[in-house]
TrEMBL record:
Listed Gene3D superfamilies: P-loop containing nucleotide triphosphate hydrolases
Database matches in PANTHER family: ABC TRANSPORTER (PTHR43335:SF3), ABC TRANSPORTER, ATP-BINDING PROTEIN (PTHR43335)
Family: Belongs to the ABC transporter superfamily.
Originating species: Chloroflexus islandicus
Domain ABC transporter: 5-234
Entries under Pfam families matching the protein: ABC_tran
Name of the protein in question: ABC transporter
Keywords: ATP-binding, Nucleotide-binding, Transport
Amino acid sequence: MTLAIETIDLTHRYNKKLVALDRLNLRVEQGCIYGFIGPNGAGKTTTLRILAGLLSPTKGEVRLLGERLTTRAAQRLVGYMPDFFGVYDDLRVWEYLDFFARCYGLRGARLRQVVDELLDLVDLAGKRDAFVQTLSRGMQQRLCLAHALVHDPPVLLLDEPASGLDPRARVELRELLRTLRDMGKTIMLSSHILSELAEVCDAIGIIDHGRMIISGPLAEVQQQLATGARARLRIARESDVVLALALLQRHPLVSAASAAAADPRALMIDFSEPLNEEQCAAILAELVNAGVAVSEFSARSENLEELFLRLTATTGQTNS
Ligand SMILES: Nc1ncnc2c1ncn2[C@@H]1O[C@H](COP(=O)(O)OP(=O)(O)OP(=O)(O)O)[C@@H](O)[C@H]1O
């Protein structure tokens, strides 16, 4: 299968000391939504700007849909939405899109058709005559996405598209991204807030200090990195907490157990390996048989947020 985006040992230095990208190898399959996740200063924007043809890498190779990256190829194949966008305030919504569509050489009936279709796609048809500055942040974001789509590129690069959006606008953005994927687009989007991405991405890559730490289908990444599991236990009587902690801390499958700071009757347990249901039931039975009144028990595997914090914590401080 042709990869939509491929980088081989992509390296970028802003100056002699600052290595923003350090032999980054990226593989994004066609037709997927790829979440590019990393803390501030990790190198996300640098990567996206290189892929969009706006910045020349110091070293390394980039291929878009199998084609070697050139400025022309990037202009044709990529729609790029920067993290900071300037909208021309004194334009109406339709004029804004009309302007950029003309920059791509569209004219006449085709131009009008593209503007109308894009306004429908991003759900701004009702706002076509409104001034850009009167739009909400979420609407402006959708308008910028429409701008990135005027030349119907197969690859979309979105830098922090969800930042500053309220929960409803995020849901709308996610729906729009799914629609675009269903239309066959490959979407790479960056974020440092994982909860923004987890639901919508088919694959993720975690970058830190300009290096790819791990990349692949979301479930595979989670599975590959699963080192254990956590559980939360609530004890009905405070007098049982000490006994419960003593039992758990001696248990061979438990790597750590402690009382939660905010609730002394809630215990947080870290297991040394993911537990199956029988193992969970056996641990519960041991506690109950010892006379501990357990009122709640919820086990879960490490979520994406925890995974990210663990991975980026081990590689040290961020660049910024
Ligand atoms: N124009 C520039 N000149 C010099 N250094 C830069 C420039 N742009 C970025 N950097 C540095 O390169 C590194 C990577 O920055 P980049 O903006 O790519 O990270 P990022 O992951 O997008 O961060 P954020 O989430 O904060 O936007 C950082 O150390 C940053 O300070």
